[in-house]
Write a structure and sequence with these properties.
Elements (H helix, E strand, L loop, with lengths): L1 H15 L1 H12 L20 H16 L3 E5 L8 H8 L3 E3 L7 H12 L8 E6 L19 H4 L3 H12 L2 H13 L27 H9 L2 H4 L11 E2 L6 H17 L2 E6 L6 E2 L2 H11 L4 E3 L14 E3 L2 E2 L1 H11 L2
Parallel strand pairs: 1-2, 1-3, 3-5, 4-6, 5-7
Antiparallel strand pairs: 8-9
Helix pairs in contact: 1-2, 5-11, 11-12
């Protein structure tokens, strides 16, 4: 009841004076770092829209770095570090990911990349999970939103999307609680960043503090989370690739062919023991070629369901990503 009332009040404020709300955000809050440009996006105080940040950083550094190779996909792409990938491609790589990304989101960004002046795309790696193939259109919402020069939306619509997201109780309540108390608790987990630097400035690789912790404390890392008592039942994800999804995959492949880009698909394992369906896997291989698709979600790679291969239940470690790249490019 309280949350519904709060939401209603915020909507009334926005409707009555959206300019005032925007003004307050600019001078006091600027919560998602979209109203102004920043030199450093890699040590944020709050969690951010990763796709938007990745594109902003790419535009900031593309002339200096002359990127020609890109890692797309979900947050599991944190296991694929550009300097490890570069052992196989010998390029100038950049990680252009977004949380919960879908193939429609990837196509949108790839089309925008191809339109950038003097932009080569020699190599492309898509880090996938079974659900990524379901979304043949760009997804809505602040998690997936892209800047106007990618999405085509107006600048005003872009700003309002973030403004409304900021004033939602699910964000505003833990945000304000942290601002007043300066004490972190679990209610702030998806809002406040307490890990300092989380990305590399020039490659956008994830900075994984967990690796240092695991190296220092070993098994203690997983014992604290009681992972060894968690069990999973192997299952198969429902087939999601229909006509529209296949068309989207074909557009990605056709654009890569027109640009002279090689493209690889890496389907990772899951701690939940969920395999991609055989029907979906067959279509992906038909579109991109069997040698360009690697599936680590199947029973043949069941060893990678062991909790030691994971940072958390949703993200496998770089040692897994390295093995997948080794097999993809052998």
């Amino acid at each position: 009841m309280k949350r519904n009332l709060f939401t209603f009040i915020i909507k009334c404020v926005l409707a009555a004076s959206p300019f005032l709300a925007l003004l307050i955000s600019y001078f006091v809050l600027d919560p998602f770092m979209v109203l102004r440009h920043y030199d450093d996006y890699d040590s944020p105080s709050i969690q951010q829209s990763e796709g938007m940040i990745a594109w902003t950083k790419y535009k900031d550094h593309r002339k200096q770095m002359r990127y020609d190779s890109f890692i797309f996909g979900t947050s599991c792409s944190k296991a694929f570090r550009t300097y490890d990938w570069n052992r196989y491609i010998k390029g100038r790589p950049y990680r252009m990911f977004c949380n919960d990304e879908g193939i429609g989101d990837i196509l949108l960004k790839l089309q925008a990349l191809a339109k950038q002046p003097d932009q080569e795309i020699k190599h492309m790696l898509i880090v996938a999970e079974p659900y990524i193939f379901e979304h043949d259109l760009p997804q809505a919402g602040v998690v997936h939103i892209m800047p106007p020069d990618v999405s085509g939306m107006s600048r005003m619509s872009f700003q309002i999307e973030f403004l409304q997201a900021f004033y939602m109780p699910s964000f505003l309540s833990p945000f304000l609680k942290y601002q007043f108390t300066h004490k972190y608790d679990n209610s702030m987990r998806d809002v406040i960043n307490i890990n300092g630097k989380i990305r590399d400035r020039l490659t956008n690789d994830a900075v994984m503090w967990q690796d240092d912790y695991i190296k220092k404390y070993g098994e203690k890392y997983w014992q604290e989370r009681d992972w060894h008592n968690q069990k999973c039942q192997p299952s198969v994800h429902a087939a999601v690739i229909k006509t529209k999804q296949r068309e989207c995959l074909s557009k990605i492949k056709a654009l890569c062919d027109s640009l002279g880009s090689d493209i690889k698909i890496a389907i990772g394992p899951t701690f939940k023991c969920e395999c991609i369906s055989k029907a979906d896997l067959k279509i992906i291989k038909d579109v991109f070629g069997p040698k360009n698709v690697l599936n680590f979600s199947d029973e043949a790679h069941a060893k990678y369901r062991d909790y030691h291969y994971y940072y958390d239940p949703g993200h496998y470690r770089a040692v897994v990503g390295n093995e997948m790249m080794k097999q993809l490019y052998k």
